[in-house]
Amino acid sequence: MKAMILAAGFGTRLWPLTIERTKPAIPFLNRPLIAYTIEYLKQYGITDIIINLHHEPESVRDQIGDGTEYGVKIHYSLEEPEILGTSGAIDKVRDLLQDETFLVVNGKIITNLDLSAALQTHRSKKAIATLVMKPNPKCEKFSEIIVDENGFYQGFGGFPKATDQGRLTSDIPLMFVGIHILEPKIFEYIPRAVFSDSIRDVYPNAMAAGEKIAAHVGEGDWYELSTLARYLEISLEFMRRESLSYTADQGCEIAHTAQVTESVLWQNVRVEAGARVHQCVLADGVHIPANTQFERKVIVRAALVINDEIPEKATRGEIIGENYVVAIN
Prior knowledge:
Elements: E1 2-6, E2 27-28, E3 31-32, H1 33-43, E4 48-53, H2 58-64, E5 73-78, H3 85-92, H4 94-97, E6 102-106, E7 109-111, H5 115-125, E8 129-135, E9 145-147, E10 153-156, E11 162-163, E12 166-167, E13 174-182, H6 198-208, E14 213-217, E15 222-224, H7 228-241, E16 246-248, E17 253-254, E18 259-261, E19 263-265, E20 270-271, E21 276-278, E22 281-282, E23 287-288, E24 293-295, E25 297-301, E26 318-320, E27 323-327
Parallel strand pairs: 1-4, 1-6, 4-5, 8-14, 16-19, 17-20, 18-21, 19-22, 20-23, 21-24, 22-25
Antiparallel strand pairs: 2-3, 6-13, 7-15, 8-13, 9-10, 11-12, 25-27, 26-27
């Protein structure tokens, strides 16, 4: 079985951390985020993997290479000049995927959901596609998935609503975890060589033609790192499991009188004497001057930021000395 990891997106909600890299290439505990997805797939014997690229493509290639380090074989699909969307991405490599059931997985997640159980659901339902989902008891801000009484996907709803006491109804909402299981027949519903989105374009057309799209509800851990706040909070959760106060990648220097707590330091970060850093993300090459204080901030080098290129969905910050500083809300 083959799988495609989606790694072409711009990662605008993670900006400015995505200035020089695509979202799945950002470090998580000093490893590229996409490495967790590769190893997840390998656990289930999936070693033939396609990765699509668009925004900052070399940020993935440089870290993952041909996959030898991970015991897998990587084929890259570069989308240019325009990004193609989920279904457009698999259309571009349909010649590699049209022989058997295959997977499409979002490259910005970390999970241990049982993929074998999801495949069993897919086969038992005889579906053209199966979407993997999990309960969302906290009513986090992920679109609710509508599933009928027979376990088939019907569409996406709005964000789940909850009161201070909990959900407004007795049902626990479901959320999509970014894993699709697909049959080659899905290509009959994917237009050729154009932008195409699976959820908005392809699945509705397939369902209108009488095709079945199954829903598999899994249990287990699942983390999605698509915003600055989620990136920090999930990093902190993993660090606490290992009793780490902070993580620092290679080349970092922290003065003896500096205080760095509950923070993520990428490569070649320097924190000078008397500085205090708490719950921050410090990107490559950031220098924190002596006796300064930062809390709940994402900090990148100001030289990387060009004001007229700040994405619309990005959280804007301010230039402080040599740094560009964005508050984590």
